[in-house]
Amino acid sequence: DAGITQSPRHKVTETGTPVTLRCHQTENHRYMYWYRQDPGHGLRLIHYSYGVKDTDKGEVSDGYSVSRSKTEDFLLTLESATSSQTSVYFCAISEGPNQPQHFGDGTRLSIL
Amino acid sequence: KNEVEQSPQNLTAQEGEFITINCSYSVGISALHWLQQHPGGGIVSLFMLSSGKKKHGRLIATINIQEKHSSLHITASHPRDSAVYICAMAGGTSYGKLTFGQGTILTVHP
Questions:
Q1: So what's the pLDDT on residue B91?
Q2: Pairing mode, if any, of strands A107-111 and A87-94?
Q3: CA-to-CA distance for A35 and A13, rounded, in angstroms?
Q4: Fewest CB atoms within 10 Å of the CB: A61, B41, B96, B101?
Q5: Residue in chain A lying closest to B36 (CA)
Q6: CA of B4, closest CA in chain A: separation in Å?
Q7: pLDDT at residue B41 tops 90
């Protein structure tokens, strides 16, 4: 299995608090992605990275920011969490843009 | 309208049956991915293809670029195949950004 670790695995927090999710990889893959999965919407891309300090928005990026200061870590931050951001968040990595993506185990985030 | 449409949404089969899940997309793509997600579990990449056909064990994936259609077949289905199967397209632009179908919930009864 690809070496991808998401942390935390579960988190419950209150509206208005900042939250940071971490995706750590040991595969030295250049591409990293953050997705959210919601009933009725399926998986949707939040942000992605194609190299250190190279990031861009996906289709549901409002309310989220990301950072990638080194190859192995891709951080997703909710600056002021809202209940609509309650979801399961998946990180994925890929060697290249047209290579298979390998997913982490997910983070279940509840915003009360 | 979603750019990626899967059918059926739900599929129930008896062990041993041949299963087909369909995926249609509306724009040009660079690749089509098939993923598997078990209940409460993580997501596993099954196939990535841009033309023709790929086979892995009892799983076969095909794609017809002209018709913008892909199929995932499972031969001799087994209860452990019960999962959600998701197709996703990587658009013609770079970076591998995926747009996902809604998923097909497959239940295989013994």
A1: 80
A2: antiparallel
A3: 19
A4: B41
A5: A103
A6: 11
A7: no
**Span B22-29, average pLDDT:** 90
Pinpoint the alpha helices (H) of B35-106: none
Please answer yes or no on whether B42 and A106 come within 8 Å at the CB atom.
yes
CA nearest to A108 within chain B: B40
What span, in angstroms and rounded, lies between the C-alpha atoms of A16 and A11? 14
Structural contact between residues B22 and B69, judged by C-beta atoms closer than 8 angstroms: yes
Q: Which residues are CB-neighbours of B38 under 8 A, at least 6 positions away?
A: B82, B83, B84
Please list the pLDDT of chain A residue by residue as tens digits (112 residues). Answer: 569 999 999 999 999 999 999 999 999 999 999 999 998 888 999 999 999 999 999 999 999 999 999 999 999 999 999 999 999 999 999 998 889 999 999 999 999 9
Among the partner residues B31, B42, B99, nearest to A103 by beta-carbon distance: B42
Q: Which of residues 27 through 86 in chain A touch B, CB cutoff 8 A?
A: 31, 33, 35, 42-45, 48, 50, 56, 58-59
Residue whose pair of structure tokens reads 């087909």 in the numeric block: B20
